[in-house]
Amino acid sequence: SCFLLLWVKRSLPHSLYGVGSEIWKIISPSTLLVSDSVCLLDGIMEEFENDTFGDELLLASLDSTVAPTQTPPANSTATHLPEYKPPTRSIFPSFPYSTPYPQQISLMQTVYSCLASAKCAVIESPTGTGKSLSLLASCLHWLLDHNEATGAHLALLRDDLKATVNCTHSGPDWVQAYAQRRERRLALNSAIEPLESQQSALCKVNKLIEEYSSSSSISMAKSGRTFSQLAREYASLFPDSLPSDGGRRAREAKPLSVREKTDEDEDKFLVASSLLEVGFPKDEEEEKEKEGSTDTRVLQIIYCSRTHSQLGQVLAELKKMPSLAERISVVTLASRQLLCVNQPVFSLKNAALVRDACLDLVGGPKQKNCVFRAKARVNALSELLIGARVSAHEAAAALRSAGREEKCDIEEAVVAAGCPYYANRAALPLAQLVLAPYQTVLVPGLRQASGLGTDGNLRDTVLIFDEAHNLLDAVAASFSASVSHADLASSGRLLGAYMDRYRSRLSAIALLRLRQLKQVAAAASASISGEFQGLAGQRRHRLDAQQRIRASVDAKETVYTTSEWLLVTGIDHINLDQLVEYLRQGHCLQKIIGFGKWFGSVRSRPRTKPTSATVGLSLSTCLEKLTGGPRRVVKEEDENVPSLTKKRKVVSAQAVEVSQNSDLESCGPGLIALLSFLEALAQSESDGRVIVSPVQVTGRTLQSDSDCVPHDGGLRFIILNPGRYLQDIVRDARSVLLVGGTMKPFEEFMEQVFRPAGKDDADVVLFSCDHVIDAERQLVIYSLSQSPKGLSWDFTFKNRMNPSLMSACGEFICELCEVTPGGLAVFFPSFDYLGTIWTHWKTTGLLQRLQNIKKLFREPRQSTALSQIMQAYAAAAMSRSGACIVAVIGGKLSEGINFNDDLARAVVLVGLPYPNVASVALREKINFLNRNFSSPPVTTLGSQEMGVNASRSEESARLTPGQLLCETVCMRSVNQAIGRSVRHAKDYAAIFLLDRRFSRKQVLNGLPSWAQPALVQPPPANLAALLNQLKEFFLRNKSDASC
Known about the structure:
Layout: H1 2-11, H2 20-27, H3 34-45, H4 52-63, H5 102-116, E1 120-124, H6 131-166, H7 174-214, H8 220-223, H9 227-237, H10 248-252, H11 284-291, E2 301-305, H12 308-318, H13 322-325, E3 330-332, H14 336-339, H15 343-346, H16 351-363, H17 375-387, H18 392-403, H19 408-417, H20 420-427, E4 433-437, H21 438-442, H22 444-450, E5 462-465, H23 471-478, E6 481-484, H24 485-502, H25 508-529, H26 536-549, E7 558-561, H27 562-568, H28 576-584, H29 588-604, H30 619-626, E8 631-635, E9 648-652, H31 653-660, H32 668-682, E10 688-693, E11 714-719, H33 727-732, E12 735-740, H34 747-754, E13 764-768, H35 775-778, E14 779-784, H36 803-819, E15 823-828, H37 831-844, H38 846-853, E16 855-858, H39 866-877, E17 883-888, H40 892-896, E18 906-910, H41 920-932, H42 950-957, H43 961-979, E19 989-994, H44 1001-1005, H45 1023-1042
Parallel strand pairs: 1-12, 1-13, 2-4, 2-5, 3-4, 5-12, 14-19, 15-17, 15-18, 16-17, 18-19
Antiparallel strand pairs: 6-11, 7-10, 8-9, 10-11
Helix pairs in contact: 5-6, 6-7, 7-17, 9-19, 17-20, 18-19, 18-20, 24-25, 24-29, 24-32, 26-27, 28-32, 36-37, 36-38, 41-43
């Protein structure tokens, strides 16, 4: 009857619709009403999810035989849904200070507006202006407002859906009305489903926060409880989650690296026989959970920074706003190495080994499973992290320390708490604020492994990259790899020993892959030594490539594209994808490294005489023990000859193991480095380059500013276009904010990141604000071209080793130390030049003179000793005589340490830290930028950019992209060093720029716009006038600060 009604409706002329009652009686003698037919049709069609396509086919077939009738207008409102109204806000009541600075208000309003309109932004806010606090306040206010607005929008959609479902049409045009109603219902359902999913997750978060906030046992922020106390209380609430042994098995387990290994254990080091046996090591329980559940997530803000210490500072800033922090769920991401609490696993130290050992325990037999991985305890701890707002770092640190204590209740609480790493991952979908290091977000594999987004896809998330002036460098570092000549040699030894041990038991495919890996290691090592393998044509190709790529300067490094390097080394026939896949799967790498440790430890054990315990051993084992160890087969001929035709000579293993196998235990890191290098090669694109650093007979001199290359040579893989690896993130995310203290020139990010990702200039907001200090009173900058004695401050590469110049520099610093209160920081272009000038001052007595005025400190190359030196420097700077520290621009002190107040009342920048143009890597990148970004980079940015220095833009417009890169790298380092000294509104400092090149207009315009008013032009005529001005500056600001 439905099809008959449809046919009659389409067949009758429009003028006859008015006599519908008579016609329907003729068609339906049983007096079937139109409304009844509509209800019947609704009941039938409700059985289908989407049959719009079938309706169109039916109508098309009818139209082919029936005269056309009037159709509804093209702009039908059937799918016009209620519009989402984004929230607006101009004040931020949760900001911890009652009167924010105008710069902070402007920054918060800009960020809020960007998120509300789903735009991207490049934001420059000077260090010391409360940038992190302003970011958190604006972002979290927007998140809460957006969640509230989304709830209201969802209610409108539900009401609309209810009205649509209940709507009936009794007129003659009931088929078209039904089609429109059904189309609207489908559109409403598709809009409602994701919002309901988010609201469901949000309700769960709010419920957890409310439960733990109201619980007397969970109030860490107010009561000051430690996590161990919290875990004990948790254990008392949930005693059933404790294992039957009270955690004894976890406490008494020995580290994997020191467990007893016997000759019978070596079977477990045998790699998979074929690719069919290989399976990527996964968490089986987690995979089962994924199969049976849907991905329900809240809207997330992912806050990224370079280091975990910086993320800790962000968390501390969040705690200053309790009205926001108490309503937001937070998760801080970290690796297994940082969060593991299983003593045998985290004692392995190496991140790759910790990961493999963790997966091995999780996916192994139940009796060997990690006791901290129990699903109930992990889920309970994940709810604790969300509800009580405890970071996984705090949990892991407390659990590790509690595991070393003797008290049983704390031990039981540790086991009850579960694994912080897996609890972190379980809590991630409910985290509204996610704190993550750069690498976790930038690398797709790490992103997916950590659980960010849906299978690594960051769709509809908000990404904030703090300290983003180093973002492109961080991307390049994340996708780069290096392996030294020593790593390749140790890898070859380890692989050779492994194949000798298991040759007769390895399958053909396993032996093939291991031989390929050994061949790659040998070829790579030969390329470092200059002994290329391949045909004469390949050698000619190599020579042509060298002549084309090498510069006219005396550079010892050589650059190749990936395909060129594979060709000249003679390994272009090896499928790197298959090789890497085999090594990564089935614990292959872990087994080989484990064999090396076992084999080395067994050979290093003292031999003991056989005892009665050897009665049950086999004949061959008894003979081995009686003769002093297993006998080893040493081949005399080439390895490629079939084994059955080789002549073999049996020698005692004890005679060769000292020279060849004594270091097998330490070969693991080399093999890991080799695999990382091969992974980078396998994933390389057209912008990837291989740099070969040959073996150096003599070490680097102090006059060399080359990149950090091992003395024995090595290989490096680098990428030249890091912005390409950000494009997918920018495309998928709702908003991406790049925030830093020295972000200009903005065009670098527009050209390399946003425009290639499909963002128009209107989709990206460019923002810059001034500092919170009064630069004219609290900051003074002297750009000096010559010394007090008239010697030009020429610290160029050719002249900076001039003894007179180095002596004049030391004497000037001595004069500044006499009048500068507190601390004085001196920055040099590189560690090499710092070492040279330090030696010169020591020889001439200037070093002792400096130490007589202020206590002198020096930045170490190794960051491990940095904290101790900074603690000692801070204590000395607060003393009456003060202190002086010499450091490097671009080092840890100039980038990550705050020299507020008396820690640096004066900052001296010696020379300009231009990158080394003799570096082949830099020259290759300059050529790449000039070829692919040939248009003038900084031209017209329009009114979107606030506070842009116009003269600098004009100067930059005349530079090529490669020249602009060198200029940007230099001036960002200078500005970062300047920004270290002024950290709050009442801080003050004096800056000295010692280099004649600072007098150039282009360089001075590269200084921050907020610091331009502090420039003293022209500088004082003599040293006495300079020192008098400096004394007045310090006295005036000291009195102002005390008011």
